[in-house]
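User: Sequence for AAA+ ATPase domain-containing protein below. Tokens please.
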Amino acid sequence: MSCISPYKRQKTCTDENPDANKENIPPEDTLSEIAGPPARSTRRVTAVTPRKSIIRRQLSRCESTPVIELGNLQLVTPPTTPAKPAPSAPTDIYTQARALLRTSSATSFTGRQAERTAITDFLTSEDKFCLYVSGTPGTGKTALVNDVLRGLDGKYKSKYLNCMGMNAEDIRASARDTRDEHADDECAMVMVLDELEHLDSATLSPVFAVGTPSFRVIGISNTHTLTSKPTTSTITLHFKPYTSNEMTQIIAKRLEELVLPDGMKAIVAPAALSFACRKVSSQTGDLRACLALVRGAIETAEKEFIKNTLANQGDSVAIVPVSMAHVLAATKTVSSQAPGTVGVVRQLNIQARLVLLSLLLSTRRLSASLPVLSKAAKTPLKSKAKSKAPEALTIDGLFEFYTHLLSSTEAVFSPVSRNEFADLVGLVETLGLLERGPTAGARGKGKAAEKSQSVGIPSTSREEEMVKGLTEPEDPQMEGPAEREIRTMWNRETARIKRETEEKEMVIKKRQDAFEDATEA
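Assistant: Structure tokens for AAA+ ATPase domain-containing protein:
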């Protein structure tokens, strides 16, 4: 049945009713259906069609279009194809590269497989409960220990303690309390004691004695391997400085996370990266110093890129990769910005600082014509004319003064052994803070000749900068008790040198006056 438009006049047609075509008389079936029963009056009635009702009823008879409620709609889209991440803006690439080369940004440790195996074997050993890890700064000791412990999460619990400035008794008490606190734990406990270079083998013995099969101790020190083991259950592990190849692999591994534009292989040219790593490896082998140098080279390349962009009035400019020229410029920038010798001294560990302190004090005593050891100052001096020239300072003499300095009643630190002292002298010499030379008239070969070598302050280093690095912290609010004690030792010993010099001058003056009086008489 077709729908009737509400805007047209209704027209009906039937074969049974002859009056169906009459315009003013509606059909009987329709009229009876709408108006009800016929009226009794014979008078002709004109009926008015109730148009709204008819339209509503007729529309309801039409076939309606199916309607879907909005709440039941479901939009189905085809699955997206995983796309390759778009490269970042050029300046963002430089920023991300520098962030990846920060010391704390590494998500995993690269290299040191032999050392990793040694640490893992120690944790599963049945008769070794203490591990002494040694090595110069920046060789990855603490980072590797933490990475191994993270990989064994669930099997071991760990606690970290920085022991700088703490004495052996406090360290042992902290380790013992930690052991007793976790005695009932299901998994074993590992305590990491960092910055132990101010303690020697004898002092470490009671500290490492707290180790048990369920409570293992890992000590970390910036000095070289101990000459004697503190306990029979202690093993030692020494970290050698990084080689240039190792540092190159570590930095290249970190930079692999960068998303570079098409056609660009690396943000740092391989030749430039190798050059930077060789430069640092030849000096200290400190990975942190190498990371800082490469970050500076990336910043230099970014400045060149920005300069090129401004010169082209904002047009698209190719990214400038780091070249050897950028590494050289960064080396000069770092050298000019760093406080020179002051910065190097501030980065030394405690025992290395004490060796440098002993060198400065003994050199000052010799310059003042005083004996290296203050106890010899009581020896009477005959006369100024007959006084001997300052003797040369040897490694044995420096070690003797170092031991005397740290064995006094005012000292807080303990001296290391002779072999460890030789390692510390080598470290300070590598950093350009000490130089060796042959002693006049010295004889012997091998170790005997080495002990008789003279030591002194290099001509390329300034003594006042060394003193500043030892006694003036970069941030006074971050100064620790060890730094304060070294400054106290310097002030106390320099005051003693001044007092002994004045006493010596008074003795010489009295003798000169007595000689003049005797001559006049």
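The radius of gyration is 45 Å.
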